[in-house]
Write a structure and sequence with these properties.
Elements: H1 3-16, H2 20-27, H3 35-47, E1 62-68, H4 75-89, E2 92-98, H5 106-115, E3 120-124, H6 136-143, E4 148-151, E5 162-165, H7 167-180, E6 186-190, H8 196-209, E7 215-218, H9 223-235, E8 240-243, H10 246-258, E9 268-273, E10 286-289, H11 292-307, E11 316-319, E12 322-324
Helix pairs in contact: 1-2, 1-3, 3-4, 4-11, 7-8, 9-10
């Protein structure tokens, strides 16, 4: 074995927390390794960016659909990556369907996936999160015998497993952070009211600020939406702005600077989602982090149960977010 291969084997064994001998058995397709250990080694191969040896590749256990919004928001590819990695660890082949303006609709994507005889479908921020959409599309899907799991957006009209971050706690967490920095007039830039995550953020924000007329601007979950909403909030005298997404927060920073205001010393901005890129923005973005890995793995596990023949759970799994303080927030002006 060459030095390069030995080093690679050592890296894989360390990542999977197994011996090099065990890692070698998995990579060479040898028997005598527990299924969970084999999956851990193969996941380590994927995480480290190595190609799985042909002898270690398993025949696909089936196809699983993943329906997500457009890929320009970094949070969606982050979810997709973890979900695909987790599904691959269980032997399933993920099939990605992306909703976008002018492209296939969610219903069209589902039709294509069902035609390909998928074993199940995971929906991320889909129509289940839109209270104006018809929820019976999911009832019809269940009647066709296709298990599914819904991420980000709860609807009690749909009988299925839901995986959500605690959006109310996230908004309150951001407000509490700005309050501790001395901000007294805090605004919320958030998406359209018809979305469940928006309503939950509004509820958490309103309760946290405790004002009769909270400063809230509804717009799109985009840079342009954040720019427009932040501009209106700044005109209202807000020195702290909580945003419904990191893209909106970047738009808020731009809106403040276009008005000659320094971020964070004159206007503080808090995002939502978190991405590895946030540490490199100018300034580095303070944000509330969605627990992507935990949520994605929970969604896969919740889907495996009905795919294995168990009844589909009718519950919502709620995960706690985390405040990540970087450079876009500071003490309020004059404090």
């Amino acid at each position: 074995m060459t030095g390069a291969l030995t080093a690679r084997l050592a890296d894989i064994a360390a990542q999977a927390d197994v011996s090099e001998a065990t890692a070698s058995r998995v990579l060479n397709g040898k028997p005598g390794v527990a299924a969970a250990t084999r999956q851990r080694v193969l996941a380590a191969v994927d995480v480290l960016g190595y190609e799985r040896p042909a002898r270690a590749r398993q025949r696909s256990a089936g196809l699983v659909g993943l329906v997500i919004p457009e890929l320009t928001n970094p949070i969606f590819p982050a979810f997709a990556q973890v979900i695909e990695q987790s599904l691959s660890g269980y032997g399933f082949t993920p099939v990605l369907g992306t909703r976008m303006l002018g492209g296939a609709t969610e219903d069209e994507l589902v039709g294509q996936l069902v035609e390909r005889d998928v074993s199940g479908i995971i929906f991320l921020s889909g129509l289940h999160a839109d209270l104006t959409a018809d929820p019976t599309r999911y009832t019809r899907l269940a009647e066709r015998g296709v298990p599914f799991v819904l991420i980000n957006g709860y609807n009690d009209s749909i009988s299925a497993p839901f995986v959500s971050p605690d959006d109310q706690a996230a908004a309150a967490m951001a407000v509490d952070h700005l309050r501790q920095l001395g901000h007294r007039r805090i605004g919320l830039a958030v998406g359209p009211e018809r979305f469940v995550p928006t309503r939950r953020k509004v509820a958490g924000f309103t309760r946290a600020v405790g004002e009769e007329r909270p400063y809230i601007q509804h717009t799109l979950f985009t840079v342009e939406g954040g720019h427009a909403a932040a501009g209106a909030l700044i005109e209202e005298g807000c020195t702290g702005i909580v945003c419904g997404s990191d893209l909106m927060a970047l738009g808020a920073v731009r809106a403040a600077r276009q008005r000659g205001l320094a971020v964070p010393h004159e206007v503080s901005v808090v995002g939502y989602d978190d991405s590895e890129l946030n540490a490199f923005t100018d300034p580095p973005l303070t944000t509330v982090r969605q627990p992507v890995r935990a949520m994605a793995n929970a969604a896969v596990h919740a889907l495996l149960e009905p795919m294995g023949g168990s009844p589909m759970a009718d519950t919502e799994f709620v995960f706690q977010p985390e405040l990540v303080v970087r450079g876009s927030t500071a003490h309020a002006p004059g404090r």
